[in-house]
Amino acid sequence: MTDKPTYHVLALSGGGYRGLYTATVLAELERSMGAPIASRFDLICGTSAGGMLALALAAEIPAHELKSLFEEHGDRIFGRRSWWRRLLGFWLTAKHDSAGLREVLTERFGDITIGDLSHRVLVPVVNYSTGLGQFFKTPHHPSFELDYRMKVVDVALATAAAPVYFPLARNDRGVFADGGLVGNAPGLFGLHEVRSFLAPEEDVQVRVLSVGTMTIGATIRGGASLDRGFGKWRGGLFDLVISAQESSVDYMLRQSLGDDYFQIDDKATPDQSKDVKALDRVSISATNTLKDRGSHAAQRALGDEHFKPFREHEAGLPIFFHGPNKNAPEAIC
């Protein structure tokens, strides 16, 4: 036990349709906790599909509805391929049109902005206008003066603009590519956010709960050609970036936090990897695998003694310095 102030961070990885695994885990945890899962965390971080989930949780959309969103609308998100996209494949255009994703997001979020969210969030993206990593955040620090005006739909499209799979996303702040290029597993960003912005001069305890997407380790077969152009790499290059990041972040968080770090993820069996390897594969077999493994992973976590602090923690009221939910002391007269 400790008397230190405690901050809990929820970190949700990206993974395309494999986000159904994450959503299933969240739905099971939320049902067991009997309260919105966002109420148990002081900061929610999410990248790509995990970013969409993070934004939704911060808007207090029930996790079981997010699970249904993947199940019911996965084919709309990943099924928009005109004849010329099918013809060109990965060569000259993105594999999927982003119109379906935008439609699904707009139906769920409408015109709400980051400033309308009830809980702190951090969503990584890559700003292709500057070539730099960027983080869209709620206004939980006095210096965060711009992001709260952003529409949630635009932020979700930016963090999910996976190279090769979807077109780049343009909004009022620039042109953006998938946050997975800078941090597909955002737990380290969450740890840094607490120590640098939420409690920069305090001796605090930080716990991080990371939920993965059954990430498939990107590897090369023994007899494969080593001379690989874009035609051979295609989506595999993005998969490799994700795989390498996931393992590195997991290692560093375990070293930094010890038992204050808890990861929920699974390795697919050889048979199941055929169902879920592709980020955009929407099928009955992929859906069943992701739901079944996600449900079991949540049950396993709930029975783990090291998970107990996460289900018992109650996050304090977040302080926002700008926007419609502004409640910082200097803003209250």
UniProtKB/TrEMBL annotation:
UniProt short sequence motif DGA/G, positions renumbered to this chain: 178-180
Protein keywords: Hydrolase, Lipid degradation, Lipid metabolism
Annotated ranges, domain PNPLA: 10-191
SUPFAM superfamilies hit by this protein: FabD/lysophospholipase-like
Protein's UniProt keywords contain Lipid metabolism: yes
Motif (GXGXXG): 14-19
Catalytic residues of the enzyme: 48, 178
GO biological process, one term: lipid catabolic process
Domain of life: Bacteria
Gene Ontology MF annotations: hydrolase activity
GXSXG (motif): residue ranges: 46-50
Gene3D superfamilies: Cytosolic phospholipase A2 catalytic domain
Xref: Pfam families: Patatin
PANTHER family recorded: INTRACELLLAR PHOSPHOLIPASE A FAMILY, PHOSPHOLIPASE A2
Protein name (record): Patatin
Species whose genome carries this gene: Marinobacter salsuginis
